[in-house]
Amino acid sequence: MILAAGGEDKEGLNMAEGNTLISVDYEIFGKVQGVFFRKHTQAEGKKLGLVGWVQNTDRGTVQGQLQGPISKVRHMQEWLETRGSPKSHIDKANFNNEKVILKLDYSDFQIVK
């Protein structure tokens, strides 16, 4: 995938890749409810400068959406997959609907009740 206009040098291409915004949906399985997972997810997302949302599901999972620069989203995906809140136990993390976006759809990282 070429993200920069033709004729840009390698440095220009790297700059374009670094500024690329993406959106990705996620669902986290395991002991993720009743352990402050949403609160910690919101805090980590804000710390990274991401926007989006997080909520509990009726299935006992946590789901949401991340938006921001690709490198920050990748960091958050790794956090969701391996760390989470201190008392959580993550069995599996699913990420889907990943796409490049031109602008952010949200202005903050929200906990949806």
TrEMBL record:
This is Acylphosphatase. Residues 23-113 form the Acylphosphatase-like domain. Its EC number is 3.6.1.7. It comes from Pan paniscus (Pygmy chimpanzee). PROSITE patterns: ACYLPHOSPHATASE_1 (PS00150), ACYLPHOSPHATASE_2 (PS00151), ACYLPHOSPHATASE_3 (PS51160). It holds the Pfam family Acylphosphatase. The keyword Iron does not apply. It comes from the Eukaryota. Belongs to the acylphosphatase family. It catalyses: an acyl phosphate + H2O = a carboxylate + phosphate + H(+).
